[in-house]
């Protein structure tokens, strides 16, 4: 069992997950983590949305080549396809508005309980150029809303429930959230991403075990799973929010997935996860 050394600045937990979704903890729960409390998924939510969209395409509700302006007439400048949104090739910026300097302000607060402003859904780069976009996945959520009534209900029914996930929510009870604390012991508030249109880009919370169950399903995939990225020697996915970070590594040819979640570690979580994977003698490519 790996334990947190005294030199760690921040807290993290990790587990290997097999194809049955059973987590094998290699860094166990330590406060403020608890098996019954909820962790932020951040942009790992995009894998849920991407899978939900793929299922809708498979069932013929729309096609990957459909132009979004046709599916959503209220967004007249959305001259890109569903597939381009999925692959971050729509040209849309990361956010409708810049994230405030040093993250001092919740960048999602202005859109809580509101729909996307059509004036902000305008590509920044030419169609087809790659630009990672939370805004793009917010638009995908609206595409599903317009097609199946609720992207979240569809995702729960078609994506999360089949993976055995039962605790996922966009609106976690404050006492149930895993959050870091300030020097006075007060929890540091998360961003409000799940309370508005960006929920489809990064709003999910669940227990760590359920995060593992969802990501462990990737062990069944023969290609890079929806919403994941291909890296040297592995498929990877991560999600970063105000204070939390989650990541997963599926080594090429492996039958297990390494899942990690950290508080106040930033990109160090990915480095620690790669080191942990290598220590387990599982082939993972060099970090880029």
Automatic annotation (TrEMBL):
Q: Top enzyme class of this protein?
A: hydrolase
Q: Where is the Beta-lactamase-related domain?
A: 28-227
TM ranges: none
Enzyme Commission code? 3.1.1.103
GO MF terms, alphabetically ordered: hydrolase activity
Q: Does the keyword Hydrolase apply?
A: yes
Write out the entry's keywords from A to Z: Hydrolase
Q: Which PANTHER family match?
A: BETA-LACTAMASE-RELATED DOMAIN-CONTAINING PROTEIN, D-ALANYL-D-ALANINE-CARBOXYPEPTIDASE/ENDOPEPTIDASE AMPH
This one is known as: Serine hydrolase domain-containing protein
Which organism is this entry from?
Curtobacterium citri
């Amino acid at each position: 069992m790996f334990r947190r050394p005294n030199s760690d600045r921040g807290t993290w937990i990790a587990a290997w997950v097999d194809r049955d979704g059973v987590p094998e903890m290699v860094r166990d729960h330590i406060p403020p983590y608890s098996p019954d409390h909820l962790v932020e998924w951040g942009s790992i939510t995009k894998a849920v949305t991407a899978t939900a969209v793929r299922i809708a395409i498979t069932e013929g509700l729309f096609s990957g080549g459909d132009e979004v302006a046709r599916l959503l007439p209220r967004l007249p400048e959305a001259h890109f396809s569903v597939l381009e949104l999925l692959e971050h090739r729509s040209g849309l910026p990361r956010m409708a508005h810049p994230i405030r300097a040093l993250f001092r302000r919740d960048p999602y607060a202005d859109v809580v309980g509101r729909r996307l402003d059509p004036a902000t859904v305008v590509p920044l780069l030419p169609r087809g150029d790659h630009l990672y976009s939370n805004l793009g996945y917010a638009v995908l959520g609206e595409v599903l809303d317009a097609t199946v009534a609720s992207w979240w209900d569809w995702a729960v029914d078609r994506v999360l429930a089949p993976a055995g996930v039962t605790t996922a929510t966009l609106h976690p009870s404050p006492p149930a959230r895993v959050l870091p604390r300030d020097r006075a012991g007060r929890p540091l508030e998360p961003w409000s991403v799940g309370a508005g249109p960006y929920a489809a880009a990064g709003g999910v919370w669940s227990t760590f075990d359920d995060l593992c169950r969802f990501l462990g399903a990737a062990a069944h995939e023969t290609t890079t799973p929806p919403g994941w990225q291909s890296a040297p020697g592995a498929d990877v996915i991560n999600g970063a929010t105000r204070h939390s970070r989650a990541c997963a590594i599926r080594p090429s040819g492996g039958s297990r997935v390494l899942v990690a979640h950290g508080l106040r570690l930033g990109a160090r979580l990915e480095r620690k996860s790669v080191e942990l994977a290598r220590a387990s003698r599982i082939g993972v490519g060099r970090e880029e």
